[in-house]
Design a protein that fits this description.
Layout lengths: L9 H5 L7 H14 L4 H12 L1 H10 L35 E5 H8 L2 H12 L5 E5 L4 H10 L3 E2 L3 H8 L2 H13 L6
Parallel strand pairs: 1-2, 2-3
C-alpha cells in the first residue's frame, strides 16, 4: 500500500477534483478500489466524506492548495544571498497625471489601505504624478490618507461636511457670538 499520510485528503484518495459530482465520486470510488493505492476503509471513508456536504466543506478547507514543499538542496541556498530587487518608477509612467488609490477597499482586501498610499507616495515622489484617494468612509480615514501622502481626495458630501465641523469649533463660534466684541461701524 502506498499510503502517503495518516489521514489523506478524500480528494486525493479518490483522485477527483473539488468540483466532482456525486456520480463522478461514485465512479472514482470503484476505480480507487481497483487501484488499491489506499486501504478499502480509507477509500470508503473518502467517498462518505465527499458525499456529505458538511464533511466535504471540511475536505475542501483542508486540501492543500500547493504541493508539498521540497527541501532546499545545499546548492539552492545561493538564491537567499541575493537582495530583493528595488522597486523603481518606470519612465513609461512619467506622463501620468494621477494615480488612484481606493483606500477603504484596499484596507478590506489587503489589510492596510494607508500603507498602499504611503508606498505610492514614496514611489511617485520624484515624478509629477499626483495621488487621488477614493473609497474613503470617514473623516479620520480622509485625514490619515492626506497625511500618508495623497494629494487629492474624493469623498461623499457627508464626510466633507463632517470634516468641516467640529464640536469645539461650534462651541467656540457660539461663545464668540455671545461674549465676543466685534467692530462696530
Amino acid at each position: 500500500m502506498n499510503k502517503q499520510s495518516p489521514t489523506p485528503n478524500p480528494y486525493d484518495v479518490l483522485e477527483v477534483s473539488s468540483g466532482a459530482s456525486n456520480k463522478e465520486i461514485t465512479v472514482a470510488f470503484a476505480m480507487a478500489m481497483k487501484r488499491r493505492q489506499y486501504p478499502p476503509d480509507a477509500i470508503a471513508l473518502a467517498r462518505k466524506s465527499l458525499m456529505n456536504p458538511e464533511e466535504r466543506i471540511i475536505a475542501d478547507y483542508l486540501r492543500p492548495i500547493i504541493g508539498t514543499v521540497k527541501r532546499f538542496k545545499r546548492s539552492d541556498l545561493f538564491a537567499l544571498d541575493r537582495l530583493a530587487p528595488k522597486l523603481e518608477f518606470l519612465s513609461e509612467f512619467d506622463c501620468l497625471d494621477s494615480a488612484i488609490a481606493y483606500v477603504n477597499r484596499a484596507t478590506r482586501l489587503l489589510g492596510d489601505g494607508l500603507a498602499l498610499v504611503r508606498e505610492m507616495s514614496d514611489l511617485l515622489k520624484h515624478s509629477n504624478t499626483e495621488i487621488l484617494a477614493a473609497s474613503l468612509k470617514s473623516p479620520e480615514e480622509a485625514a490619515a490618507t492626506l497625511q500618508a501622502g495623497a494629494h487629492h481626495l474624493t469623498v461623499p458630501m457627508s464626510i466633507l461636511q463632517a470634516m468641516a465641523t467640529h464640536d469645539l469649533s461650534d462651541k467656540t463660534v457660539t461663545e464668540f457670538l455671545d461674549k465676543g466684541i466685534g467692530i462696530s461701524i
